[in-house]
């Protein structure tokens, strides 16, 4: 049986920011926001990325799209090495990869109407005629549950949920294969969150788009993802199919995160795992395993050697974990 290759392959990707100091602003160190990250996203599936604030999730998403220029590694989208493209070829490749930003208000120009916002990507890439572009805009607004009456309105005239729908429509204008949804529902009310999540799920089923869904909310990620990656201090510490990860988390950090999810039943209580200490600085991470200073199960070897991300069992989507316990 022939297995389709993944749509997206991220191979040992890194993004390091220089830290400058002194009178002459010389480089005094490097902040490793993303360090040696590898994973795959299959066609028509969602890869959920979770972790605490500041762990490098958003930086990873932007480095994949080259909104941040990667320091190391490769990103291969549908057979094309995105990291090797020059500026002109990268502009053409951007048709196939888009982003939905966290803040639906800041990501929309306050001086542009909905019509102008949705026409712009097609005009930049010279797609279609003026008439066909306008028809595409009306089609997109219908897909995201908005009508033609909003065409000449500005972002400040909409609610947060409506603005996020406009952001989703803009991401769809060029018929992309892959979309990064960066905390796309975190700024929305719970009822609006469910509407936007259901919309993303429906778009995926109908259009076959692959998503990298970035969030700190593990309950949301469970609802929408096929695979989940857990990130800590710039590195992935566990990757697994969503059902496996939530049923049997292997990494102590993943177990601590899952223990914080509220249980919607007053008669049930989940034992909360409270992590001790503060998140280490990415400028000066601990030796060995970066999680060892907060890990309740740390061993001497954890200070000596960094654990590699390895599969625990074989399979089409193996459960991988970076921990000396396994």
Spans of at least 5 consecutive residues with low confidence: none
Rg result: 21 Å
Note the overall shape. Answer: globular
What is the strand tally?
A: 12
Helix content: 25-40%
Computed structural class: alpha/beta
Straight-line distance between termini:
31 Å
Order of helices and strands: EEEHEEHEHHHEHEHEEHHHEE
Q: pLDDT average, as an integer?
A: 89
Helical stretch tally:
10
Q: State the assembly state of the protein chains.
A: single chain
Can you summarize the main beta sheet?
8 strands, mixed
- The share of residues in extended strands comes to 15-25%
Strand line-up of the largest beta sheet: 6-7-8-3-9-10-12-11
What does this structure look like?
It contains ten helices and twelve strands. It has 326 residues and is an alpha/beta fold. It has a domain at 253-326. Helix 6 links the parallel strand 7 (178-182) and strand 8 (210-214). Helix 5 (160-172) packs parallel to helix 6 (190-207). The chain is globular and about 65 Å long.
Main features:
four-stranded antiparallel β-sheet, eight-stranded mixed β-sheet, about 325 residues, alpha/beta, globular, single chain, 12 strands
List the helices and strands and how they pair.
Blueprint: E1 8-21, E2 26-41, E3 46-50, H1 57-64, E4 72-77, E5 80-81, H2 87-93, E6 97-100, H3 114-124, H4 130-143, H5 160-172, E7 178-182, H6 190-207, E8 210-214, H7 218-224, E9 227-232, E10 235-241, H8 242-247, H9 252-259, H10 300-304, E11 310-311, E12 320-321
Parallel strand pairs: 3-8, 3-9, 6-7, 7-8
Antiparallel strand pairs: 1-2, 1-4, 4-5, 9-10, 10-12, 11-12
